Protein backbone atom coordinates (compact mmCIF):
# COMPACT_ATOMS: atom_id res chain seq x y z
CA UNK A 1 0.00 0.00 0.00
CA UNK A 2 1.29 3.49 -0.85
CA UNK A 3 2.60 5.65 1.89
CA UNK A 4 0.33 8.42 3.07
CA UNK A 5 3.40 10.60 3.27
CA UNK A 6 3.90 10.73 -0.47
CA UNK A 7 4.77 14.34 -1.38
CA UNK A 8 2.28 16.45 -3.25
CA UNK A 9 3.27 17.35 -6.76
CA UNK A 10 2.15 20.90 -6.25
CA UNK A 11 4.75 21.41 -3.53
CA UNK A 12 7.73 20.15 -5.51
CA UNK A 13 10.41 22.83 -5.96
CA UNK A 14 10.82 23.97 -9.54
CA UNK A 15 13.61 26.48 -9.27
CA UNK A 16 16.41 24.24 -8.06
CA UNK A 17 16.86 21.51 -10.59
CA UNK A 18 20.39 20.19 -11.17
CA UNK A 19 20.59 20.10 -14.96
CA UNK A 20 24.24 20.94 -15.29
CA UNK A 21 27.45 19.89 -13.65
CA UNK A 22 29.96 22.58 -12.68
CA UNK A 23 32.33 21.23 -15.35
CA UNK A 24 32.42 18.56 -18.02
CA UNK A 25 32.77 15.13 -16.35
CA UNK A 26 36.22 13.56 -16.45
CA UNK A 27 36.79 10.40 -18.45
CA UNK A 28 36.90 8.36 -15.24
CA UNK A 29 33.37 9.57 -14.50
CA UNK A 30 31.97 8.66 -17.92
CA UNK A 31 30.77 5.36 -16.43
CA UNK A 32 30.15 6.55 -12.87
CA UNK A 33 26.71 4.89 -12.62
CA UNK A 34 28.36 1.47 -13.04
CA UNK A 35 29.75 1.84 -9.52
CA UNK A 36 26.24 1.00 -8.29
CA UNK A 37 25.84 -2.78 -7.84
CA UNK A 38 22.17 -2.97 -8.84
CA UNK A 39 22.81 -0.89 -11.94
CA UNK A 40 25.74 -3.09 -12.98
CA UNK A 41 23.44 -6.09 -12.66
CA UNK A 42 20.73 -4.28 -14.58
CA UNK A 43 23.19 -3.46 -17.36
CA UNK A 44 23.97 -7.14 -17.98
CA UNK A 45 20.27 -7.82 -18.40
CA UNK A 46 19.91 -4.85 -20.73
CA UNK A 47 22.78 -6.02 -22.94
CA UNK A 48 21.20 -9.45 -23.35
CA UNK A 49 17.65 -8.11 -23.63
CA UNK A 50 18.40 -5.31 -26.09
CA UNK A 51 20.47 -7.53 -28.36
CA UNK A 52 17.61 -10.02 -28.53
CA UNK A 53 15.03 -7.29 -29.06
CA UNK A 54 16.97 -5.84 -31.98
CA UNK A 55 17.33 -9.31 -33.46
CA UNK A 56 13.59 -9.81 -33.25
CA UNK A 57 12.84 -6.37 -34.64
CA UNK A 58 14.95 -6.93 -37.75
CA UNK A 59 13.77 -10.52 -38.20
CA UNK A 60 10.13 -9.50 -37.71
CA UNK A 61 10.28 -6.72 -40.31
CA UNK A 62 12.05 -8.95 -42.80
CA UNK A 63 9.59 -11.79 -42.19
CA UNK A 64 6.64 -9.51 -42.89
CA UNK A 65 8.31 -8.22 -46.05
CA UNK A 66 8.86 -11.80 -47.25
CA UNK A 67 5.30 -12.85 -46.38
CA UNK A 68 3.60 -9.87 -48.03
CA UNK A 69 6.17 -8.43 -50.49
CA UNK A 70 4.84 -5.02 -49.40
CA UNK A 71 6.84 -2.32 -47.61
CA UNK A 72 3.55 -0.84 -46.41
CA UNK A 73 2.93 -4.05 -44.43
CA UNK A 74 6.20 -3.46 -42.58
CA UNK A 75 4.88 -0.04 -41.65
CA UNK A 76 1.65 -1.63 -40.41
CA UNK A 77 3.68 -3.95 -38.16
CA UNK A 78 5.55 -1.00 -36.68
CA UNK A 79 2.28 0.90 -36.20
CA UNK A 80 0.58 -2.01 -34.42
CA UNK A 81 3.51 -2.43 -32.04
CA UNK A 82 3.60 1.26 -31.15
CA UNK A 83 -0.11 2.21 -31.34
CA UNK A 84 -1.12 0.94 -27.85
CA UNK A 85 1.20 3.50 -26.27
CA UNK A 86 -0.60 6.20 -28.24
CA UNK A 87 -4.01 5.21 -26.88
CA UNK A 88 -3.20 3.88 -23.41
CA UNK A 89 0.19 5.39 -22.55
CA UNK A 90 -1.07 7.96 -20.05
CA UNK A 91 -3.05 5.31 -18.19
CA UNK A 92 0.12 3.23 -18.07
CA UNK A 93 1.91 6.14 -16.43
CA UNK A 94 -0.70 6.27 -13.67
CA UNK A 95 -0.19 2.54 -13.04
CA UNK A 96 3.59 2.96 -12.91
CA UNK A 97 3.33 5.68 -10.25
CA UNK A 98 1.19 3.37 -8.08
CA UNK A 99 3.18 0.12 -8.06
CA UNK A 100 6.81 -1.03 -7.53
CA UNK A 101 8.76 -0.64 -10.76
CA UNK A 102 10.80 -3.85 -10.34
CA UNK A 103 7.63 -5.93 -9.96
CA UNK A 104 6.04 -4.33 -13.01
CA UNK A 105 9.17 -4.97 -15.09
CA UNK A 106 9.27 -8.63 -14.02
CA UNK A 107 5.69 -9.06 -15.24
CA UNK A 108 6.18 -7.22 -18.53
CA UNK A 109 9.42 -9.03 -19.38
CA UNK A 110 7.73 -12.37 -18.75
CA UNK A 111 4.89 -11.55 -21.15
CA UNK A 112 7.33 -10.24 -23.76
CA UNK A 113 9.28 -13.49 -23.53
CA UNK A 114 6.10 -15.52 -24.04
CA UNK A 115 5.26 -13.51 -27.16
CA UNK A 116 8.75 -14.11 -28.59
CA UNK A 117 8.43 -17.84 -27.88
CA UNK A 118 5.05 -17.92 -29.64
CA UNK A 119 6.41 -16.17 -32.73
CA UNK A 120 9.41 -18.53 -32.77
CA UNK A 121 7.14 -21.58 -32.65
CA UNK A 122 4.90 -20.33 -35.45
CA UNK A 123 7.86 -19.46 -37.67
CA UNK A 124 9.90 -22.61 -37.06
CA UNK A 125 6.87 -24.84 -37.73
CA UNK A 126 6.11 -23.02 -40.97
CA UNK A 127 2.65 -22.00 -39.77
CA UNK A 128 3.30 -18.27 -39.51
CA UNK A 129 1.07 -15.86 -41.39
CA UNK A 130 1.22 -12.08 -41.63
CA UNK A 131 -1.88 -11.55 -39.47
CA UNK A 132 -0.25 -13.55 -36.67
CA UNK A 133 2.83 -11.33 -36.75
CA UNK A 134 0.52 -8.30 -36.65
CA UNK A 135 -1.33 -9.71 -33.62
CA UNK A 136 1.89 -10.45 -31.71
CA UNK A 137 3.23 -6.99 -32.54
CA UNK A 138 0.05 -5.47 -31.08
CA UNK A 139 0.35 -7.63 -27.95
CA UNK A 140 3.94 -6.46 -27.47
CA UNK A 141 2.69 -2.91 -27.84
CA UNK A 142 0.25 -3.47 -24.97
CA UNK A 143 3.10 -4.80 -22.82
CA UNK A 144 5.10 -1.68 -23.72
CA UNK A 145 2.39 0.56 -22.24
CA UNK A 146 3.56 -0.52 -18.77
CA UNK A 147 7.11 -1.65 -19.53
CA UNK A 148 8.54 1.51 -21.05
CA UNK A 149 7.55 4.09 -18.41
CA UNK A 150 8.48 1.55 -15.70
CA UNK A 151 11.91 1.13 -17.26
CA UNK A 152 12.47 4.88 -17.55
CA UNK A 153 11.42 5.58 -13.96
CA UNK A 154 13.30 2.55 -12.58
CA UNK A 155 16.67 3.96 -13.67
CA UNK A 156 16.34 6.74 -11.11
CA UNK A 157 15.59 4.18 -8.38
CA UNK A 158 18.72 2.25 -9.34
CA UNK A 159 21.27 5.07 -9.38
CA UNK A 160 19.67 8.07 -7.69
CA UNK A 161 19.66 11.64 -8.93
CA UNK A 162 23.43 12.11 -8.79
CA UNK A 163 24.13 9.49 -11.48
CA UNK A 164 20.85 9.77 -13.41
CA UNK A 165 22.14 11.67 -16.46
CA UNK A 166 25.09 9.31 -16.78
CA UNK A 167 22.86 6.25 -16.44
CA UNK A 168 20.46 7.55 -19.10
CA UNK A 169 23.36 7.97 -21.53
CA UNK A 170 24.75 4.53 -20.70
CA UNK A 171 21.30 2.99 -21.16
CA UNK A 172 21.19 4.52 -24.62
CA UNK A 173 24.70 3.22 -25.30
CA UNK A 174 23.67 -0.28 -24.26
CA UNK A 175 20.52 -0.08 -26.36
CA UNK A 176 22.55 0.91 -29.39
CA UNK A 177 25.20 -1.72 -28.67
CA UNK A 178 22.35 -4.20 -28.96
CA UNK A 179 21.36 -2.38 -32.14
CA UNK A 180 24.88 -2.87 -33.46
CA UNK A 181 25.18 -6.56 -32.61
CA UNK A 182 21.54 -7.65 -32.89
CA UNK A 183 20.87 -6.72 -36.54
CA UNK A 184 24.20 -8.18 -37.63
CA UNK A 185 23.41 -11.49 -35.90
CA UNK A 186 19.86 -11.39 -37.24
CA UNK A 187 21.07 -10.83 -40.80
CA UNK A 188 23.39 -13.85 -40.57
CA UNK A 189 20.74 -16.01 -38.92
CA UNK A 190 18.01 -15.09 -41.39
CA UNK A 191 20.31 -16.03 -44.25
CA UNK A 192 21.55 -19.24 -42.62
CA UNK A 193 18.62 -20.72 -40.66
CA UNK A 194 15.67 -18.36 -41.03
CA UNK A 195 13.89 -15.81 -38.84
CA UNK A 196 12.48 -18.31 -36.32
CA UNK A 197 15.75 -18.87 -34.46
CA UNK A 198 16.19 -15.15 -33.91
CA UNK A 199 12.82 -15.11 -32.16
CA UNK A 200 13.77 -18.19 -30.11
CA UNK A 201 17.04 -16.66 -28.88
CA UNK A 202 15.18 -13.51 -27.88
CA UNK A 203 12.73 -15.60 -25.83
CA UNK A 204 15.63 -17.16 -23.91
CA UNK A 205 17.11 -13.69 -23.35
CA UNK A 206 13.95 -12.57 -21.57
CA UNK A 207 14.39 -15.40 -19.06
CA UNK A 208 17.81 -14.00 -18.14
CA UNK A 209 16.40 -10.47 -17.78
CA UNK A 210 13.76 -11.70 -15.32
CA UNK A 211 16.43 -13.52 -13.28
CA UNK A 212 18.51 -10.33 -13.11
CA UNK A 213 15.55 -8.31 -11.84
CA UNK A 214 14.86 -10.80 -9.07
CA UNK A 215 18.53 -10.91 -7.95
CA UNK A 216 18.79 -7.20 -7.19
CA UNK A 217 19.47 -5.93 -3.66
CA UNK A 218 16.15 -4.28 -2.87
CA UNK A 219 17.58 -2.53 0.18
CA UNK A 220 19.90 -0.51 -2.07
CA UNK A 221 17.14 0.79 -4.35
CA UNK A 222 15.87 4.37 -3.97
CA UNK A 223 12.16 3.85 -4.69
CA UNK A 224 10.00 6.82 -5.59
CA UNK A 225 7.02 7.45 -3.29
CA UNK A 226 4.13 5.32 -4.47
CA UNK A 227 1.01 7.32 -5.18
CA UNK A 228 -2.21 6.13 -3.50
CA UNK A 229 -5.18 5.33 -5.71
CA UNK A 230 -7.19 8.52 -6.11
CA UNK A 231 -9.36 10.32 -8.62
CA UNK A 232 -7.87 12.89 -10.93
CA UNK A 233 -4.28 11.58 -10.97
CA UNK A 234 -4.08 11.67 -14.75
CA UNK A 235 -5.39 15.23 -14.77
CA UNK A 236 -2.94 16.14 -12.01
CA UNK A 237 -0.05 14.83 -14.08
CA UNK A 238 -1.13 16.78 -17.16
CA UNK A 239 -1.50 19.96 -15.07
CA UNK A 240 2.03 19.45 -13.76
CA UNK A 241 3.36 19.09 -17.31
CA UNK A 242 1.47 22.18 -18.46
CA UNK A 243 3.43 24.23 -15.94
CA UNK A 244 6.79 23.03 -17.28
CA UNK A 245 7.79 24.84 -20.53
CA UNK A 246 11.02 22.84 -20.77
CA UNK A 247 8.99 19.61 -20.84
CA UNK A 248 6.40 20.90 -23.30
CA UNK A 249 8.91 22.15 -25.89
CA UNK A 250 10.97 18.99 -25.56
CA UNK A 251 7.88 16.89 -26.20
CA UNK A 252 7.05 18.97 -29.29
CA UNK A 253 10.51 18.27 -30.71
CA UNK A 254 10.17 14.59 -29.85
CA UNK A 255 6.88 14.49 -31.76
CA UNK A 256 8.49 15.70 -34.99
CA UNK A 257 11.50 13.40 -34.63
CA UNK A 258 9.33 10.40 -33.78
CA UNK A 259 6.91 11.02 -36.62
CA UNK A 260 9.49 11.50 -39.36
CA UNK A 261 13.05 10.70 -38.32
CA UNK A 262 12.75 7.49 -36.27
CA UNK A 263 11.26 5.23 -38.92
CA UNK A 264 14.55 4.29 -40.50
CA UNK A 265 13.88 0.55 -40.11
CA UNK A 266 10.91 0.83 -42.47
CA UNK A 267 12.85 2.86 -45.03
CA UNK A 268 16.06 0.84 -44.72
CA UNK A 269 14.09 -2.29 -45.63
CA UNK A 270 12.92 -0.47 -48.76
CA UNK A 271 16.42 0.78 -49.61
CA UNK A 272 17.85 -2.74 -49.15
CA UNK A 273 15.16 -4.42 -51.24
CA UNK A 274 14.43 -1.85 -53.95
CA UNK A 275 17.23 0.70 -54.27
CA UNK A 276 20.47 -1.20 -53.67
CA UNK A 277 19.22 -4.84 -53.92
CA UNK A 278 21.35 -5.98 -50.97
CA UNK A 279 18.87 -8.46 -49.46
CA UNK A 280 18.59 -9.33 -45.77
CA UNK A 281 22.34 -9.07 -45.16
CA UNK A 282 22.38 -5.52 -46.51
CA UNK A 283 19.35 -4.64 -44.40
CA UNK A 284 21.15 -5.89 -41.31
CA UNK A 285 24.26 -3.94 -42.30
CA UNK A 286 22.30 -0.70 -42.75
CA UNK A 287 20.76 -1.10 -39.30
CA UNK A 288 24.18 -1.84 -37.82
CA UNK A 289 25.65 1.33 -39.33
CA UNK A 290 22.86 3.41 -37.80
CA UNK A 291 23.60 1.65 -34.51
CA UNK A 292 27.33 2.46 -34.77
CA UNK A 293 26.45 6.13 -35.04
CA UNK A 294 23.86 5.82 -32.28
CA UNK A 295 26.36 4.14 -29.96
CA UNK A 296 28.85 6.94 -30.68
CA UNK A 297 26.22 9.58 -29.93
CA UNK A 298 25.12 7.86 -26.74
CA UNK A 299 28.70 7.55 -25.46
CA UNK A 300 29.34 11.19 -26.31
CA UNK A 301 26.29 12.05 -24.21
CA UNK A 302 28.01 10.67 -21.10
CA UNK A 303 30.44 13.59 -21.42
CA UNK A 304 27.66 16.17 -21.62
CA UNK A 305 27.93 18.73 -18.82
CA UNK A 306 24.59 20.45 -19.43
CA UNK A 307 21.20 19.90 -21.02
CA UNK A 308 19.62 22.80 -22.92
CA UNK A 309 16.67 23.20 -25.27
CA UNK A 310 18.84 24.92 -27.87
CA UNK A 311 21.08 21.85 -27.99
CA UNK A 312 18.04 19.69 -28.68
CA UNK A 313 16.93 22.00 -31.50
CA UNK A 314 20.40 21.83 -33.08
CA UNK A 315 20.43 18.04 -32.81
CA UNK A 316 17.08 17.79 -34.61
CA UNK A 317 18.41 20.05 -37.35
CA UNK A 318 21.50 17.87 -37.74
CA UNK A 319 19.43 14.68 -38.04
CA UNK A 320 17.23 16.30 -40.68
CA UNK A 321 20.13 17.59 -42.78
CA UNK A 322 21.91 14.22 -42.83
CA UNK A 323 18.68 12.47 -43.83
CA UNK A 324 18.13 14.92 -46.67
CA UNK A 325 21.65 14.30 -47.96
CA UNK A 326 21.20 10.51 -47.63
CA UNK A 327 18.00 10.74 -49.70
CA UNK A 328 20.03 11.90 -52.71
CA UNK A 329 23.14 9.78 -52.05
CA UNK A 330 24.54 8.69 -55.43
CA UNK A 331 25.63 5.19 -54.39
CA UNK A 332 25.39 2.54 -51.66
CA UNK A 333 28.73 3.43 -50.05
CA UNK A 334 27.82 7.11 -49.63
CA UNK A 335 24.39 6.18 -48.30
CA UNK A 336 25.93 3.72 -45.84
CA UNK A 337 28.43 6.28 -44.52
CA UNK A 338 25.68 8.85 -43.96
CA UNK A 339 23.77 6.41 -41.75
CA UNK A 340 26.44 6.80 -39.06
CA UNK A 341 25.99 10.56 -38.41
CA UNK A 342 22.21 10.09 -38.66
CA UNK A 343 22.41 7.60 -35.80
CA UNK A 344 24.78 9.79 -33.77
CA UNK A 345 22.71 12.96 -34.03
CA UNK A 346 19.50 11.07 -33.30
CA UNK A 347 20.88 9.60 -30.08
CA UNK A 348 22.37 12.91 -28.97
CA UNK A 349 18.86 14.33 -29.27
CA UNK A 350 17.08 11.43 -27.57
CA UNK A 351 19.44 11.18 -24.59
CA UNK A 352 19.28 14.95 -24.15
CA UNK A 353 15.48 14.98 -24.31
CA UNK A 354 15.21 12.09 -21.85
CA UNK A 355 17.66 13.69 -19.43
CA UNK A 356 16.00 17.10 -19.56
CA UNK A 357 12.56 15.66 -18.82
CA UNK A 358 13.65 13.29 -16.05
CA UNK A 359 15.82 15.87 -14.31
CA UNK A 360 13.03 18.45 -14.24
CA UNK A 361 10.33 16.07 -12.99
CA UNK A 362 9.29 15.39 -9.39
CA UNK A 363 9.67 11.71 -8.33
CA UNK A 364 5.99 11.27 -7.45
CA UNK A 365 4.82 12.14 -10.96
CA UNK A 366 7.73 10.74 -12.97
CA UNK A 367 5.74 7.74 -14.24
CA UNK A 368 3.04 9.96 -15.70
CA UNK A 369 5.48 12.44 -17.21
CA UNK A 370 7.59 9.71 -18.78
CA UNK A 371 4.41 8.06 -20.03
CA UNK A 372 3.52 11.25 -21.90
CA UNK A 373 7.05 11.49 -23.26
CA UNK A 374 6.91 7.87 -24.43
CA UNK A 375 3.34 8.25 -25.70
CA UNK A 376 4.50 11.02 -27.99
CA UNK A 377 7.76 9.28 -28.94
CA UNK A 378 6.27 5.85 -29.60
CA UNK A 379 2.88 7.08 -30.78
CA UNK A 380 4.55 9.31 -33.33
CA UNK A 381 6.62 6.34 -34.49
CA UNK A 382 3.43 4.29 -34.83
CA UNK A 383 1.79 6.90 -37.04
CA UNK A 384 5.04 7.64 -38.85
CA UNK A 385 5.77 3.98 -39.53
CA UNK A 386 2.36 3.53 -41.13
CA UNK A 387 2.47 6.77 -43.10
CA UNK A 388 6.08 6.54 -44.26
CA UNK A 389 5.61 2.92 -45.32
CA UNK A 390 2.80 4.04 -47.61
CA UNK A 391 4.78 7.07 -48.80
CA UNK A 392 7.69 4.78 -49.68
CA UNK A 393 5.29 2.63 -51.71
CA UNK A 394 4.05 5.60 -53.74
CA UNK A 395 7.01 8.00 -53.88
CA UNK A 396 9.81 5.48 -53.50
CA UNK A 397 12.35 5.18 -50.67
CA UNK A 398 14.28 8.29 -51.67
CA UNK A 399 11.18 10.49 -51.71
CA UNK A 400 10.08 9.16 -48.34
CA UNK A 401 13.50 9.81 -46.78
CA UNK A 402 13.52 13.35 -48.22
CA UNK A 403 10.22 14.03 -46.45
CA UNK A 404 11.64 12.53 -43.24
CA UNK A 405 14.41 15.12 -43.35
CA UNK A 406 12.65 18.21 -44.64
CA UNK A 407 9.71 18.39 -42.19
CA UNK A 408 11.80 18.10 -38.96
CA UNK A 409 14.26 20.63 -40.39
CA UNK A 410 11.47 23.16 -40.90
CA UNK A 411 10.14 22.38 -37.40
CA UNK A 412 13.60 22.85 -35.83
CA UNK A 413 14.04 26.24 -37.53
CA UNK A 414 10.58 27.46 -36.49
CA UNK A 415 10.91 26.25 -32.89
CA UNK A 416 14.40 27.73 -32.65
CA UNK A 417 13.04 31.12 -33.74
CA UNK A 418 10.15 30.89 -31.29
CA UNK A 419 12.47 30.02 -28.39
CA UNK A 420 14.79 32.88 -29.32
CA UNK A 421 11.93 35.40 -29.51
CA UNK A 422 9.92 34.24 -26.51
CA UNK A 423 12.59 34.80 -23.88
CA UNK A 424 10.54 33.46 -20.96
CA UNK A 425 10.82 29.96 -22.40
CA UNK A 426 14.62 30.07 -22.62
CA UNK A 427 16.49 27.72 -20.28
CA UNK A 428 19.71 29.04 -18.79
CA UNK A 429 22.05 27.24 -16.43
CA UNK A 430 23.19 29.08 -13.32
CA UNK A 431 26.66 27.97 -12.29
CA UNK A 432 26.61 29.44 -8.79
CA UNK A 433 28.21 26.83 -6.58
CA UNK A 434 26.16 25.32 -3.78
CA UNK A 435 28.29 22.40 -2.71
CA UNK A 436 28.46 20.32 -5.87
CA UNK A 437 25.16 21.54 -7.32
CA UNK A 438 24.19 24.05 -9.97
CA UNK A 439 20.70 25.08 -10.89
CA UNK A 440 18.55 25.81 -13.93
CA UNK A 441 16.36 28.89 -14.30
CA UNK A 442 13.80 30.08 -16.85
CA UNK A 443 14.74 33.67 -17.55
CA UNK A 444 12.55 36.27 -19.22
CA UNK A 445 13.55 39.13 -21.46
CA UNK A 446 13.32 41.43 -18.50
CA UNK A 447 15.96 39.37 -16.72
CA UNK A 448 13.48 38.16 -14.14
CA UNK A 449 13.47 34.50 -13.15
CA UNK A 450 10.24 32.58 -13.93
CA UNK A 451 10.01 29.32 -11.94
From TrEMBL:
Q: Is Lipid biosynthesis one of the keywords UniProt gives this record? A: no
Q: Output this protein's name.
A: MFS family permease
**Subcellular location(s) per record:** Cell membrane
Q: Which InterPro entries match?
A: MFS_dom, MFS_trans_sf, TM_effector
Q: Which PANTHER family match?
A: INTEGRAL MEMBRANE EFFLUX PROTEIN-RELATED, STAPHYLOFERRIN A TRANSPORTER
Q: Where is the Major facilitator superfamily (MFS) profile domain?
A: 38-423
Cross-referenced CDD domains, in alphabetical order?
Answer: MFS_MefA_like
Q: How does it sit in the membrane?
A: Multi-pass membrane protein
Task: List the top taxonomic levels of the source.
Answer: Bacteria, Bacillati, Actinomycetota, Actinomycetes, Micrococcales
Ranges annotated as spanning the membrane: 71-96, 103-122, 128-146, 167-190, 196-213, 247-271, 283-300, 312-329, 335-357, 369-388, 400-423
Q: Which GO terms describe its molecular function?
A: transmembrane transporter activity
The principal localisation class reads: membrane
